[in-house]
Amino acid sequence: MVTAMSPDIRDERSQWLWPEYYQAFPAFSEKTVRKGCHPRKMVHPGGADQAVVLVHGLSDSPYFMAAIGEYFHATLGYDVYIPLLQCHGLKCPERMVGVSLTEWQKNVRFAIVSATATARRVSIGGLSTGGALGYLFACMEPAINGDLYLFSAALGLSAWPFGIPGRFKEWLLRRQWIGRLDTSRPMVGNHPYRYDRISLNSAAELAVLIGQIKAMPCRFADSDKPDRRIFAAWSECDTVVSLDKIRNLQKQIPAGRFRSFIISAADRVDHACVVLREPIYGLLDPPGSPPLEKANPRFAEMLAAVDRFARGN
After folding, report:
1. Distance (Å, whole) CA 133 – CA 308
2. Which of 80, 114, 224, 229 sits most deeply, having the most CB atoms within 10 A of its CB?
């Protein structure tokens, strides 16, 4: 059962810090990272038997995975690690020039190694690009011996108007010159926990990641691995990622090892809002202004489904 937390507890947990992360990745520090965008570590005294690595999406920050992480920690008893991906969450992102999928993988691998230090069973997951990274590591990293949690996972990009397939968008983003077309418009603005726009440099790295995923076999489809399971949540009105890719993944997985939580289009939940327990308001907006991003009205129901899945029910 999903239990509501008091504002005091919620505020305290939202500040879980991970100082070792800054030591491992010196480009990040309290001086360079925006308030609230820091990496998070939620660890029980002595360490828990189970841990989960949760990875945020493109242009956003660990804040987006914090509410789900708090539930894993407080209710399910997991240790939780939420890394900050290279070039994200910065006060001065500089169009994310130099962003690298290889560096993102180093960020995630550091979280996995941290989790395996005490936990016997390690799961992974994330939002959008974070879900794609989670999928990649779940298929290639032996240390991930638990479940995979996908939230609006970017296993492919959505189609363009007039029936132009998303794979053409992915192909275009993988061209070496695409970064030269990136606008000079500032990336940091009114949104407190994500950039105000997506850098073409970072979108290109996502396209490379999607290409890697398409080229690798699905480890979760192996019939000799009955303990490998996937939980996937998505909104039917998502216009960012290819929902067909998620549905096709479900068809590959043996019965009973894939659990879906589908938010109907009538609920009008946008791509990244799937993971939001509370709405996000603009830094510069006056009181009473509408939120920049709405909370998922089915968030508690979704976590209840996560709870049943994690407990094997």
Report:
1. 24
2. 80
Structural tokens at position 87: 């070039």
| Span between the terminal Cα atoms of the chain, in Å | 12
What's the pLDDT score for residue 226? Answer: 66
Whole-angstrom Cα distance, residue 254 to residue 263? 23
Q: Which of 134, 137, 124, 108 is nearest to 53 (CA)?
A: 124
Q: Are 187 and 195 in contact (CB under 8 A)?
A: yes
Contacts of 274 (CB under 8 A, 6+ apart): 127, 151, 152, 233, 234, 235, 263, 296, 302
What the block records as the tokens of 152 is: 């609006």
Alpha-carbon distance of 61 to 83, in angstroms, equals 9
Rounded distance between C-alpha atoms, residue 89 and residue 215, angstroms? 30
Helical ranges in 216-254 per DSSP H: 243-252
Query: What are the residues facing 259 on neighbouring strands?
Result: 231
Q: Can you give the pLDDT at residue 16?
A: 86
The amino acid present at 153, given as its one-letter code, is: A
Is pLDDT of 128 > 80? yes
Q: Which residue has the tokens 């992102």?
A: 93
Distance CA 174, CA 154 (A): 15
Inter-CA distances, 280 with 8, 220, 269, Å: 18, 35, 14
Read off the pTM.
0.92
Residue 3 pLDDT exceeds 60: no
Question: Confidence band (pLDDT; 50, 70, 90) for 218?
Answer: confident
Report the C-alpha gap between 121 and 144 in whole angstroms: 7
Q: Give phi and psi for 99, each to the nearest 5.
A: -60, 145
